[in-house]
Amino acid sequence: MALTPTLDTARPADQSHRSRWWVLTVIALAQLMVMLDATVVNIALPSAQTDLGFADSSRQWVITAYALAFGSLLLLGGRISDMFGRRAAMMTGLIGFAAASALGGAAHTFGYLIAARVLQGAFAALLAPAARSLLVTTFTEPAERAKAFGVFGAVAGAGGAIGLLLGGVLTQQLDWRWTMYINVGFAVVALAGALTLLRPGVRDRSVRLDVPGTLLVSSGLFGIVYGLGNADSHSWGAPETWLPLTAGVVLLAVFARWQTRARQPLLPLRIIVDRTRGASYLTMMVIGAGMFGVFLFLTYYLQQTLGYSPIRTGLAFLPMVVVMMIISIVTTTVLMPRVGPRPLVPLGLALSSASLIWMTALGVHSTYAADVLPPLLLAGLGTGLAIAPAISLPTHGVSERDAGVASAAVNVMQQIGGSVGTALFNTMATTAVSAYLTDHPGPTPQVLAEAGVHGYTTAYWWAAAVFALGALATLVLYRSGQVRGKALSG
């Protein structure tokens, strides 16, 4: 995704200086819409499940459908943005995202809801790289660009927290469907701003789309997630489980091979084979897998076991998010320049693993202040330590031509980790619930509540193991000391 200043910018030079901060407002609004949609549905999911009547084994698809489409199509979206112009890509993404959100809000079957989530992810994959590239082309002075990216990053970081709170308010005061409908309002405002402030850009006709690579990686990831989902209703040895899993692994291997031969590869392997960058991408996958699982299962625990309202559930997550954001800033400005990533990322992932092990002690009669809040704060501390280096290091040492792809791959890895992790943890949780109910006949309300908690506990153990393995892997991959090399804006 080449970032060429001659493509899309704000309106002509005499207006550019005056309107550039309004352009930032439009871009930030679009980014907020994309980021909050990853969490706003989590709080509404129990209500949506009750309304549409889908099974526990299917609930993970509401999360993974969006994450899979977003993650697997994001790099292609960047290429399309370069090929057809960033203004056109952003406007198409906004219109499509709004339409998909309206479809999801009006969904009366599980299938329609999943289709809407896939479309949301696909249009988000077109919108996100166009918005990021427009920042680079609008703010050409280094000092102003740094400020713009600071605002952009703050909006991205706050998007998850806003989504949790907004999801609770909309679900409780209106209906879960408004967690979808709200995007239409965001999109209309951002679209009006884009029409007013951005001018059509010149197409980059040298860009070629890696369609085979996109099909291979999308199909491979779908096969893995589908196989993991089937393991709940079928045994691990059943063809319905191992066939899609095997096919997914083979397709991803073919994708890796194809990337060495494609004229303009979707993800040049030279970007991820570097130890520092590879460790950073691995960290984002682990964080995506673990945190998606925490949000999903803790949401159900708070609402269905402890009886929390949607608003109270959203508020319950905010201390973790606040701690994560504060620690992330401290890590970036104080710790990273002094000690480098090697002690920070493994420690952060280890603390996140410990927080999930702590959550396995949650029971039917646990309380928020004594039992839920402490491990949540520890999770925020651990994630804040790990995520700051993982976001900043993927562009270290890459050439200017690879900066956009290297930067976008951060979101790709997080979304892929989230989709695969959610599928795995949900399967383990629902399998554990079924086993518990088999061993404890008589589905009384008490037994059902205990079975649910047993399922969540199983998911926490698996997520803790993923974080622990990530801590060991990053301890080996990261080198000691400060990172040498220049980070490029993407």
Overview of the molecule:
With 490 residues, this protein is mainly α. The chain has two domains: 1-206, Growth Hormone, Chain: A; 267-490, MFS general substrate transporter like domains (Growth Hormone, Chain: A). The chain has 16 helices and no strands. It has helices spanning 13-36, 40-52, 60-84, 86-105, 110-138, 142-173, 178-197, 211-233, 239-259, 269-272, 275-305, 310-339, 344-359, 368-392, 403-439, 445-477. Helix 1 runs antiparallel to helix 7 (178-197).
Compute the number of structural domains: 2
Rg (C-alpha, Å): 22 Å
Cα(first) to Cα(last) distance is: 9 Å
Give the rounded overall mean pLDDT.
81
Provide a quick synopsis of the model.
The protein is an all-alpha fold and 490 residues long.
Sequence-ordered SSE layout with sheet pairings:
Elements: H1 13-36, H2 40-52, H3 60-84, H4 86-105, H5 110-138, H6 142-173, H7 178-197, H8 211-233, H9 239-259, H10 269-272, H11 275-305, H12 310-339, H13 344-359, H14 368-392, H15 403-439, H16 445-477
Helix pairs in contact: 1-5, 1-6, 1-7, 2-6, 2-11, 3-4, 3-5, 3-8, 3-15, 4-5, 4-7, 6-12, 8-9, 8-15, 11-12, 11-14, 11-15, 11-16, 12-14, 13-14, 13-16, 15-16
Search tags:
about 500 residues; mainly alpha; Growth Hormone, Chain: A; about 0% strand
